[in-house]
Structure formats: C-alpha cells, structure tokens
Design brief:
By secondary structure, this protein is α+β, with helices and mostly antiparallel strands. It has eight helices and 17 strands.
Length: 290
C-alpha cells in the first residue's frame, strides 16, 4: 500500500463502452420466407375469429399458426383484451406446435391478410427453412426465462409431473446410430448432470432411465427414454435455467452445440419434436406460477 499516493487526485477512468443491446430473437423477414414456403396469403374479413380460447383441434379442423401481413388482430382472454398482433408477427404458434388447447381468442378487428399453416404445411416449410425452428425455439426460451426471472421457485404449485418423451423409437435409434458410441455416456442414479446458473455445454437425449429437472429445488420435469433436456442453454447460449439429476441409472446421448444446430437444421422431424417439447414446457411452467 506504500506505493500508492493518495495526495494526488485520482485520474478519471475512461468511460466504459455500453454493453451492446441484445440481438432481437424474432426475425420478421425469416418468418415471411418460412410462411411463404408453406402457404399462401389469404384475405380474412373483419369480425372473423381465427381461433377461440380453450378450443382444441379436431380431426378435420387442424390447429393453425398465422403470420399477419395486413390488418389488426386483437387477442383476449376470458373476454378481456390482452394485446394485439403487429404486422409481420406470428400468432397461434404455441397451440399448433404443442397440439394443445388455445389459451386466448384471436379476432380480426379489421380486414386482414394472413398466411396460415397447418401441421402439414408447417412440416413442408420446415424442410425448406429449418433455421426457422431455431428462431422459434429462441422465442419460446425467451418467454420461459422471463417467467423464471419472476422468482418462479417461490410460486410453483405441487402437481404431478408427467414424464417427457418427444422422440419416437425409430428417431431415437437413428440418432444413437448416427452420433455413434462416442456420444453415449452412462451415469448412476443420483448424478447431477448440470446445475442452474452454470454454463451450458451439452444437451442430452435419454436412451435409458429417467432424469429429474428442478428449478430452485422444485421438480418441473421428468425426462424418460426419447426425452431431451439441456437444450435451452445451447439455443440462447445463456446459463442453465435448471438443474438435472438422474433418478435412475441412465444411458444418455450427449450433444454439443455444433452438433445440436446441425441436427435441427438437417432433420426437420427432430426440430419439430424439440419445438413441441419446448411449447409444452412453457405452458407447463406458466400453469404452475401462482
């Protein structure tokens, strides 16, 4: 400390450059290209309901997602306005991807032009524009992390947690064969694979066994054979949002970010399965926040 001279005024420190603003997740141009790859623009009369709250898809009436090109679309829940859709934005994607009930009503308040995609058209577009899946994952993860930031650990209700399985047997076997033995890892029961708040390096696919995913000590997901976990941090390259611990002896496929991105872009079925799982996770966490 003797070499410091406090009698002289301290030199002002140079101003630190402001941190760059986070890059927006949603890309309207990419969304337009994607929807054009799977569908065509159509006019919708004012007063038309695109979908209603609590509505579920039927055999002849499949759920659709929409891209608004022109007009004004209002969203409401229990009859109360909750927002509107801006031109260039997509809406209705959560129910369409997760095959679950609508959480809001969407009404054309003026004459509108939209592009609508059902599940078949969505898969067609995904084959041509697989990078859209990554963008949509990023949007869902952004929504998920926003909920977690609201101190979700203090507001989770205690409910039964279903086991997550998103890859069918054929896709699971193809993935294991394609990635080889180098990607296979076995862990005994009680192994902590990663902790919330740490850097995310790997995503995992469960071949055998069961993994528990917790947030602030509260169970939010169980992952069984065919389930995927740990992908959130690979998509947005932020810290882990949860802790993963093996409940039984497990055989897992470990996937790094480069391989993960390649899989999503090269296999539309894998991308669609991940999107469905993420949509279900967002809905589940949202439903457990008091």
């Amino acid at each position: 400390m003797d070499d410091l001279d406090f009698s002289k005024p301290a030199r002002p420190r140079p101003a630190q450059p402001a941190a760059p603003a986070p890059k927006p997740v949603y890309n309207a141009a990419m969304a337009l290209e994607f929807f054009r790859a799977g569908g065509k623009a159509e006019a919708v009369a004012a007063g038309t309901k695109f979908f209603e709250e609590d509505q579920r898809a039927g055999f002849f009436d499949r759920d659709k997602m929409y891209l608004l090109l022109e007009g004004d679309v209002g969203l409401s829940v229990r009859g109360k306005p909750v927002g509107s859709v801006k031109i260039g934005e997509i809406f209705g994607e959560m129910a369409a991807i997760s095959d679950s009930a609508r959480t809001a009503t969407a009404l054309a308040r003026t004459t509108c032009r939209v592009i609508a995609l059902d599940d078949k058209a969505f898969r067609k577009a995904l084959e041509q524009k697989p990078e859209f899946a990554l963008m949509l994952m990023g949007m869902m993860i952004e929504r998920l992390r926003a909920m977690l930031a609201r101190q979700i650990g203090d507001g989770l209700s205690e409910e039964a947690v279903a086991e997550s399985r998103i890859l069918d047997k054929d896709m699971l076997q193809a993935l294991a064969k394609g990635l080889g033995h180098e990607a296979l890892a076995r862990h005994g029961a009680g192994t902590t694979l990663f902790r919330e708040g740490t850097a995310g390096v790997l995503a995992y696919v469960v071949l055998e066994g069961r993994v528990a995913v917790t947030i602030q000590g509260k169970l939010v997901q169980r992952v069984g054979p065919g389930g995927v976990f740990g992908e959130v941090a690979l998509v947005d390259q932020a810290t882990r949002a949860a802790t993963a611990t093996t409940e039984t002896d497990c055989a897992l496929i470990a996937i790094n970010r480069a391989v993960f991105i390649k899989l999503v872009k090269g296999n539309p079925d894998f991308g669609a399965a991940l999107l469905g799982a993420l949509a279900q996770r967002v809905r589940f966490v949202s439903s457990r926040v008091r």
